[in-house]
Q: What sequence folds into this?
């Protein structure tokens, strides 16, 4: 049950009965426990619009709520301050609702394309690809859990200018096709890219050949294609290994690389002809409200990143019937997506009811306050980063859980290390930058993966000590007596509304904040309410609360793409 939505509906009815139609009750979790569980702030604005007294309206809303039988769910509803309405849920309602905990699937499933990770295959995956991969994967999992049909799209960059440069370099250093070309050199894609780039920048003749190579590649010339194919396969094998390591759900089936749209590009440009202006030989779309045009075909005939995206939008509608398309890329691509969306709307490629969303994220920063880099200023490769995460986690886990046998300790270190990196990326609003800080992300205190993973393991150990299976309690409604039990119960009931909000706004940090709050509510419960030592039937009821909490932590972390360990 989406508790917030259910309560909002009651409030809308109550506002209506109090003489305000179509009110926005503005119901949200209460800021402080003394304000109850939720507070509705909508009476002030509604009163202002209607020229009524805000407290008077709030009181009429409370009376209407009562007449509508709100006492089936709430033990207290009261007006506070200038016209807030505070509502405190009743223990019986909380207890009864908990029996049906778990993720509910939507009645209105959408077909949602999630475009994420999408690295450029010219380079090895580095820290710049971390955020799209992690945030996009969490969102894909959350949307799917809510019952939406998710179409993952890994729109890898395997086409364009950079490949001309790489292939021209490959042709020079490695020689012809089938020569077993420099697989060794390509092993280090990063170095290979750097060398090609340096030549491209320094040597005009090389740069010219690189450009010709792009045209040859895009024109389907056989030798260029063969070099390219080898290069891409190698680069993709790096990606696969990284996804596997990170526990990301992308597979080869989700690959729709830029090159896939090659044949569509002339058609797309032709279909856009009504919108195109030729400017200095290049085909451009001038859009209202933008200082710069969107270029769709260069003077030399070459196509651009934007052209491919135009083609991909159409494909996603025609092939997948997308009702929502979510792009997770960094904030610097904001202009590109604004223009893209404006152009496809104008061209009628997309029906108005299909939502197009660029969901940007900020930069990963180093301790020095500048984008995170290696000591010598290079890109931090993801494989190296993940190795270090697991190494550091094994130290932390060794201190915290010295009793674990070595094999299990190594597995826990993997789960904690990878989890810590992912969680640190997910826990803040995605649009903000964050500082990459090993000590903070691996801490067992605060809003971190290790803290939550440990909270989960502790609940499990409680069941082990009690000699009972937590499964025996799932789906059993507890009875709620104490304040701490009620608080924990309310926290558990907020899972669904949290997931739905995260899905609607594509903000997975809502789920992180929720899980952190839930773990806190559990600690307070556990400090004040004995569980194993409590007499029956209180013991069983509290064990049920523990079981639902453990289950919710595990499911919630799982939806963020973060694993748990049964003991730590
Ligand atoms: N390959 C691009 C990059 O590395 C990201 C692609 C995002 N997806 C898209 N449809 N444009 O920046």
A:
């Amino acid at each position: 049950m989406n508790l917030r939505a259910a309560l909002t509906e009651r409030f809308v009815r109550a506002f209506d009965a109090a003489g305000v139609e179509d009110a926005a009750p503005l119901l949200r979790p209460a800021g402080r426990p003394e304000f109850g569980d939720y507070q509705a702030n909508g009476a002030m604005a509604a009163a202002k619009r209607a020229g009524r007294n805000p407290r008077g309206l709030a009181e009429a809303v409370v009376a209407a709520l009562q007449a509508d039988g709100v006492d089936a769910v709430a033990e207290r509803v009261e007006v506070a301050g200038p016209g807030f309405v505070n509502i405190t849920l009743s223990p019986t309602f909380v207890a009864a609702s908990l029996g049906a905990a778990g993720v509910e699937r939507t009645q209105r499933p959408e077909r949602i394309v999630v475009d994420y990770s999408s690295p450029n295959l010219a380079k090895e995956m580095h820290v710049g690809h971390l955020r799209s991969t992690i945030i996009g994967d969490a969102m894909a999992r959350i949307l799917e859990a809510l019952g939406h049909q998710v179409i993952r799209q890994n729109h890898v960059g395997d086409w364009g200018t950079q490949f001309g440069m790489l292939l021209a370099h490959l042709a020079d250093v490695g020689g012809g096709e089938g020569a077993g070309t420099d697989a060794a050199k390509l092993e280090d894609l990063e170095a290979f890219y750097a060398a090609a780039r340096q030549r491209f920048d320094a040597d005009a003749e090389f740069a010219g050949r690189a450009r010709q190579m792009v045209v040859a590649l895009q024109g389907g010339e056989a030798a260029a294609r063969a070099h390219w194919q080898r290069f891409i396969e190698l680069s993709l094998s790096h990606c696969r290994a990284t996804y596997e390591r990170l526990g990301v759900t992308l597979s080869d089936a989700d690959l729709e690389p830029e090159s896939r749209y090659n044949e569509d590009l002339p058609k797309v440009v032709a279909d856009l002809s009504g919108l195109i202006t030729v400017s200095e030989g290049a085909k451009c779309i001038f859009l209202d409200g933008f200082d710069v045009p969107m270029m769709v075909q260069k003077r030399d005939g070459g196509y651009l990143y934007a052209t491919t995206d135009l083609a991909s939008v159409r494909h996603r509608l025609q092939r997948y019937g997308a009702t929502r398309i979510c792009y997770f890329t960094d904030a610097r691509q904001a202009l590109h997506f604004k223009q893209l969306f404006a152009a496809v709307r104008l061209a009628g490629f997309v029906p108005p009811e299909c939502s197009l969303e660029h969901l940007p994220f900020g930069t990963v920063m180093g301790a020095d306050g500048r984008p995170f880099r290696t000591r010598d200023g290079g890109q931090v490769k993801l494989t190296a980063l993940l190795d270090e995460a697991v190494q550091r986690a094994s130290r932390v886990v060794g201190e915290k859980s010295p009793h674990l046998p070595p094999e299990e300790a190594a597995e826990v270190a993997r789960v904690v290390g990878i989890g810590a990196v992912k969680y640190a990326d997910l826990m803040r609003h995605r649009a903000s930058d964050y500082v990459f800080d090993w000590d903070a992300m691996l801490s067992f205190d605060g809003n971190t993966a290790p803290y939550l993973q440990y909270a989960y393991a502790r609940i499990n150990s409680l069941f082990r000590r009690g000699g009972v299976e937590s499964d025996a309690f799932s789906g059993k409604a507890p009875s709620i007596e104490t304040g701490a039990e009620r608080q924990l119960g309310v926290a558990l009931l907020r899972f669904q509304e949290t997931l739905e909000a995260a899905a609607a706004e594509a903000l997975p940090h809502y789920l992180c904040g929720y899980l952190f709050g839930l773990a806190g509510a559990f600690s307070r419960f556990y400090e004040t309410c004995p569980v194993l030592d409590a007499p029956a039937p209180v013991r069983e009821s509290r064990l049920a609360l523990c079981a639902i909490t453990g289950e919710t932590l595990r499911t919630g972390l799982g939806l963020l793409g973060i694993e748990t360990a049964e003991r730590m």
